Fold this protein.
Amino acid sequence: MLTAIKNWLSASKLIKKDGNGFVVGRYGKAILENDPTFQRSSTWWAFHLLLCLSEDAYPYHGVFVQLEPSVRTYIGTKALVERVSEVEGNDLRVGTLETYLDGILKTFGRDGALEGLGLVESRIDRGASDDNVFWRLGAPLVPDGAILFGIALTRERFFPTRISVDFSELIGMHLDHYLLTSQDALRARIKQLSLKNLGLQYTTNANLDSLSFDPLFTAESVLITFLQEGADTWM
């Protein structure tokens, strides 16, 4: 259990390797300074996004890549495992993948520790033969801070030297899936946020939607604001 916890904290960059041990990373420090007992929903939204946009959190992000945010149809556990196994970054044996996914899905499923976030929904079909648990993305209230943090993290990982990105590039990195929001709804939310002078500008030129960023729009600064001001979204 301790090894698993350490691996998830490391994958999310809440801790980082330091010699033969680990130290708290910059995101971990931000959370400890604002929510040391990990009680706020904004903390767990941040943890979710850090894992989705991590280079080392497979198969976590694969679950959200393979579940559809706009149609939200249920998919059986076995079929989900097969789909996640095809997501880029897979180097796990099927048995290991099934074990990891079982732990992830139970966290969000009925009576799971993070069920109250509403990120993933499950239902049981007792009439089904060997695949009687089905999953789909939930429809939670997605806070503004989560959208901003998701944008900032995507930029930090994939476009770190650029001052602007196309909306289509964010979709290409599956940000709509990670935020459980359809592409059209996400576009509308980002347009609204760009009007609030938050360091983010949204423009449309020749049918091309793009986002540009102020120098102070960084993942760390957005996270701190989210942790301090984010609305509670526990169900």
Summary: The chain has a mean pLDDT of 92. Residues 144-229 form a domain with the Arc Repressor Mutant, subunit A fold (CATH 1.10.10). The chain is about 45% helix and 15% strand.
